[in-house]
Please model this.
Amino acid sequence: MIARFSRPVSLRRMKQEEAFTIEATEEERAALAEELDLLGIDSLDAAMTLRPWKGEGVRVTGRVSGKLRQACVVTLEPVEGTVEETFDLRFHPDIQESTTIDVDADAEDPPEPLDGQSIDIGAIALEYFALGIDPYPRAPGAEFDDIEEGEEEPSPFAALAALKNGMS
Model:
């Protein structure tokens, strides 16, 4: 089962800007923590504004924030973390999925296709929450001990050369 944070909003009667605040329940946070391979999610909330955009479209701006616990990539100790992400998205029914992708870091993101007369603001919040999670959390002072700085690991070929030289 895929964990969800679903908060659909009908766009049928939207004529002006509307503000929304959403918060994940304890059950949703537990399911999402398992889905996202986290030790726990202590809070997950979002504040966003929806406003009509270009006739039948909608613009969604806002922020998502949360507190979570992850396993340290070095020691596996619990590490507390926070997520603070902002977003500004546009959706329109006339937008078609493109098979080509143009990448321009300075350009504004293109609008997303809008299917139907509703939008799931919980799914948007969850997407940006997941993007804000530290992929390599470390406990304070945790370091890899394998190779000291400046120390080089011997080449496997050096070991073979030593064997060859010992035989002659």
Notes: The CA atoms of residues 38 and 70 lie 5 Å apart. Residues 8-167 form one domain. The longest strand covers residues 57-71. The longest helix spans residues 156-167.
